[in-house]
Amino acid sequence: MPPPITRRELLAGGAAFAVVSADPVAAKTAPASSEAAPAAVPVDLKVNGKTHRLRLDARITVLDALREHLHMTGSKKGCDQGQCGACTILIGGRRVLSCLTLAVTVQRKEIQTIEGLAVSGELHPMQQAFIDQDGFQCGYCTPGQIMSAIACVREGHAQTDADIREYMSGNLCRCAAYPKIVAAIKQARAKMVGA
Ligand code: FES
Ligand code: FES
């Protein structure tokens, strides 16, 4: 019969177990569960004129592909549920919520993000207008606002203040910079279409 465990030995064993359990590295290297990792598929994404060949989980969104795989973090993740507009990018010239769009579905389409707006160091008129009009506070919503605003002007939906408010209503700003965002869009509109 094995010798009885002393109280001291029992406490020492419990402490060692607690350390191993709390160690995130140890947790990560623990044997995987029976759930198999999903297979990666080849995905070609054309972002700001450049084609990137990636291997991605087929369930990954364009937003995560941009941020996690291409390290283009300009497009923001606000809600990840299609409710805030922070992730707005242009695909084929149309505004799209990148958090709700699977990367595999937009292969070889023209994807435009905030990183691709400035040309040779010169800001897009919409970027400049947001700076001139102070159209942001914390700036978290701003990339999505700017991408959406460019499409809004191109769509012809920026004729009046009411139009702008209506067609920009999918882009929320928790800092409530709305009046200045409207002013910025009007300034940029004049430059973009000579209106
Ligand atoms: Fe996509 Fe909020 S992060 S809509
Ligand atoms: Fe802060 Fe819009 S500037 S959320």
SSE order and pairing:
Layout: H1 7-22, H2 24-28, E1 40-47, E2 50-57, H3 62-69, E3 88-91, E4 94-97, E5 110-112, H4 125-132, H5 142-154, H6 161-167, H7 178-193
Parallel strand pairs: 1-5
Antiparallel strand pairs: 1-2, 3-4, 3-5
Helix pairs in contact: 4-7, 5-7
The structure holds FE2/S2 (inorganic) cluster (2 copies).
One FE2/S2 (inorganic) cluster (FES) binds next to loops.
Task: Describe, in plain words, how this protein is organized in 3D.
The protein has 195 residues and is of the alpha+beta class. It has helices spanning 7-22, 24-28, 62-69, 125-132, 142-154, 161-167, 178-193; strands at 40-47, 50-57, 88-91, 94-97, 110-112. It folds into two domains: 40-116, Ubiquitin-like (UB roll), CATH 3.10.20.30; 125-192, DNA polymerase, domain 1. The chain is built from seven helices and five strands. A hairpin with a 2-residue loop joins strand 1 (40-47) and strand 2. Helix 5 crosses helix 7. It binds FE2/S2 (inorganic) cluster (2 copies). One FE2/S2 (inorganic) cluster binds next to loops.
